[in-house]
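Lecture 7 notes: from sequence to structure.

We start with a single chain of 177 residues. Read the sequence below before looking at the structure.
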Amino acid sequence: MALAKPARARTAAWLTAAVLLFGAGAAGCGDDGGGTDEPSPTRSVTPTKTASPTGDEPSDPEAAEEEIEENWETFFDPATSRDEKAELLQDGSRLKPLLEAFSGDQRGEQVKAEVTEVTFTSATSADVTYALTVKGATVLPDASGVSVLQDGEWKVSHKTLCGLVELSDDAPKAPGC
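Now the structure, written as tokens:
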């Protein structure tokens, strides 16, 4: 019997959150200033830089966009250690319990993210559009998150990570969210 569409969406959301957060260490979601990007060894889509709506952007927007893309894709890479993911997550040391809660989940080895667009909203914040895949199949094609500049590094915002965890009714209460 096929799952109803809402059940599939909840399952995909939970699977995505589990894979991202607990796969190899940490996952990122958020909509708050201070994000990180993940590097990806292979990239099939070239992200597009867009002008910030307010005209504010980092002093070197091209370098900032590259760092955001790399950090986001690294954060969502199953091969990235939990400690490294914590470094790429805004307030990552505070959210280590969340990352640890999902460690060892086999589904985490199946999730990846690919940044498709970065839009600076200020010199220290950017909206990030990305595609989330599980086993190579896109489950969230136009996911939205935020990257924030924290301690001189662009990080995945904690709100982005917590938002992914909250996508599912089945997800346990996320420590730190």
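Residues 1-54 have pLDDT under 50 and may be disordered. Keep this in mind for problem set 3.
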